[in-house]
Amino acid sequence: IPESGHKYYLQFTTEDYKSRENVGSCLATVLYPKTKSPPAVNIKCTYTKDQKQIQEEDNGVYQKIRHQTKPIIGNNIPDSYGNIEPALEPVWALAVAGSSYIMWEKSTENLGYFMAQVKSVKQWIRKDDFIEFDYTVLLHEIPTQEIISCHMRLTWLPGHPLKVKYFCASENQGLEYGSGMESGSAAGILHERGANF
């Protein structure tokens, strides 16, 4: 669109991060404006996976984390051989969901991101039913091949949106702050600007 920017029409499938099972298909339009403002995105998805099954899986992850006898602490997930300890798989799953919000917000028409590793994670014990973690995640920036370190605070309770606050540091850009709430089932993303933790 000459005066506005570049508009893309996309068709893609979504998959379960662990089983790689197809869980839905989506149609999207993305307009990258000529200004530095975020892209305008419209996504419509249909899901092949039963919503009740998704809720049961979410609750299973939650129960595994909630029934730990002491706070979860971990480093280098996955390890240098690509392995994840079974006890840390739920923590990895939450990191994947939370970092997807960061990658979504930081991506541009020419830059994309993949989560390379959870460098460190620490669980906070709360008196309510929510679970909360502090993560340091490493994002792989494409095509620059730069590794971006991001600190992420994640709060979650099944049936509620995943809350993510973060800041990222890179060699060229210094610190970047952001926050928001994201549904782990991709049902919607709400933005909350300017919050620090």
SSE ordering: EEEHEHEEEEEE
Q: What number is the mean pLDDT?
A: 83
- How many β-strand runs? 10
* Secondary structure category: alpha+beta
Q: Give Rg in angstroms.
A: 17 Å
Given the C-alpha coordinates, what overall shape results?
Answer: globular
For the biggest sheet, the summary is: 7 strands, antiparallel
**Into which percent range does the helicity of residues fall?**
10-25%
Distance between the termini: 39 Å
Strand fraction equals over 45%
Helical region count? 2
Largest sheet strand order:
4-5-6-7-8-9-10
Q: What does the model show?
A:
- By secondary structure, the chain is of the alpha+beta class.
- The protein has 2 helices and 10 strands.
- It has a 7-stranded antiparallel sheet with strand order 4-5-6-7-8-9-10.
- Strand 1 and strand 2 form a beta hairpin.
- The longest helix is centred in the middle third of the chain and has 18 residues.
- The C terminus is likely disordered.
